[in-house]
Each structure stands twice: as structure tokens, then as C-alpha cells.
Amino acid sequence: MNRWLVALTIAMSAMLAINSVLGPFVFDVVAYGFPESVANQGIGLDAVSLLLVAPLGLLSAWATSKRWSLGPLVALAVAAYTAYMLVQYLVGPNYTYAARIYPFQLVTFVASLATATLAWQVLSAGPPWTHRRRLTAGVMFGVAAFVVLRYLPTLIGAAGEDPLPEEYTTAPAFFWTIVLMDLGIFVPAAIATGVGVLRQARWAAAAALSITVWFTLVTVAVWAMALTMVVNDDPYASDGQVVLFLALSVVTVGYAGWALRDTFGPRHSRRGA
Question: Is 215 helix (H, G, I), strand (E, B) or coil?
């Protein structure tokens, strides 16, 4: 199982890197047809995917080959990130023609799901994690609340049929795809994981750490998207968003690093967690 996971993780990471190289960040050979603001966000997303996430996926494959528990966990987070990003590129452009990149992105998406499934099989068989349960559950509930609050104006506006934010009016599929994944998948998963941690469910340990790493990667990506908009003088750029997500990125990276070290560090065996 580890060999298959290593192979799938390497393939997925390579395809993620290729997709980023073909996009607007490097060669810009893929015609997504996004409006300016969404295209700028795509540049930031591709930059993080190429320079951070794909290398992290390769490192997780190496760690898995060494039979380190950290390898499958990071592979799961990278696979979730890849699937999350690919859905936006598969649905967001709202293609009215057969885009050449679509089959490749579809295969990459399938590879990410296969990697996530295999990584989960490896991880969920581990022992229940009872260390710092209240803190971990609080973090899961906290990130779920943060995402809900981000979309609260949209949810409230839905009652009055308010229009979309202006920057997304020309790309509504892109906006609603992200809303669906954030509120329909991530928030319920984070809440369920928080409850599972409190109840000492066997699967909750892997889920909590994977969600932590995934949320960290997405937060850094959102910061890069906001920064790209500012650098490119996007009409909808916001210095406040850059500062907010930079601060949030620092916090999430710090917490993720601490949580991973706390779980897999040298004191882990002595603690018996």
C-alpha cells in the first residue's frame, strides 16, 4: 500500500506542477477565459501550487517511502488541496468548448482523489489521538466558524437576492464552486472532526492534522491571490485582505508546525499519545 501511495503522490504532485506551469503564472498557454480579477487570483494560486504544494507533495512521498507517519498525513492534505484547486479550474471557466487542458486536469483530479483515499486508508488505522483534545477540537470549530463568517454576507444577502460581489459577476461559476466546497464540504468536515476528537474517535487524529495542513496551504494560497491582485493593480485589490491573510498565514503555519512537531516529535514516544 505504501508503494502505491508513493507512486500516486509523485504522479499527482508532478501533474499539479505541470498544470501550474501551463497556467498564467508561467507560460499562460491555457485559455481559461477568466475576467481580470479572477485571472490574477489564478496566478497567485498557481504560484503557491508550483512553489510550495507540489514540492511538499514530493517530500511527503519521500517520507512515506521511509515509512514515516508524517508522509501519508501530508500526502492527504496535498491531495485535498489539489482536488480543491482542480474543481475550480474544471468548473469555474464555464467552458462552452472542448478545452485542451480539460482531460489533463480531469486526470489530475482523479489522481488526487486516489491519493487521498489511499492515504486515508493508511492513516485511519492508527490509534486514537487523545493528546490536547480540547485544543484540537477548538481549532476545528474555530476554522469552521471563520469560513462561515467569511460567507455570512452572501448567506444573508441570499434572502434578499442580492447580487454577487462585483468582481465575480462575470465568473459566477468560479464563485459558487468555491462557496459549495467551503460551506458544503470543508465546514461540515471540520465540525465532524472536532466532535470526533472530543469523542476520541480513531479516525479523528488523522483528520484533524490533515485539515490543519490543508487549511494552512489554502490560507497561504489566498494570501498569494490577494497579493497578486495588489501587485497587478487589480481594480478589486485590497491591501486589507493582503494584511489579513498574511497574518492568518503566519498563525496557521506556526500552529501547523507546532501541531505536527507535537504529534511526531521526539517527545511523542515518551508521552504515549
Answer: helix
The cell for 210 is 490533515
Q: Is residue 116 within 8 Å of 80, Cβ to Cβ?
A: yes
The DSSP call for residue 166 is G
Domain-wise residue ranges, the chain: 2-271
**Taking a C-beta distance cutoff of 8 angstroms, is the pair 42, 24 a contact?**
yes
Up-side HSE of residue 4: CA atoms within 13 Å toward CB?
Answer: 12
pLDDT digits (tens, 9 = 90+) for 39-73: 999 999 999 999 999 999 999 999 999 999 899 99
What is the rounded average pLDDT of the residues 216-221?
98
Q: Average the pLDDT over each of 21-25, 199-203, 242-246 and give the range with the smallest value.
A: 199-203
Place of cell 496535498: 78
Separation between Cα atoms, residue 41 and residue 144, nearest integer Å = 23
Count helices and strands in the chain by DSSP H and E runs: 11, 0
Is the entire prediction scored with pTM above 0.90? Answer: yes
Query: Taking Cα atoms as reference points, which of 207, 170, 163 lies closest to residue 188?
Result: 207
Kindly list the distances between the CA atom of residue 221 and the CA atoms of 81, 97, 162, 214, in Å, as whole numbers in the listed order: 10, 29, 28, 11
Q: Give me the DSSP letters along 35-104.
A: -HHHHHHHHHHHHHIIIIIHHHHHHHHHHHHTT-THHHHHHHHHHHHHHHHHHHHHHTT--SS--TTHHH
| Distance separating alpha carbons of residues 92 and 53, to the nearest angstrom | 21
Percentage with pLDDT > 70 across the chain: 95
The CA–CA distances, whole Å, from 193 to 34, 82, 91, 126 equal 35, 21, 28, 15
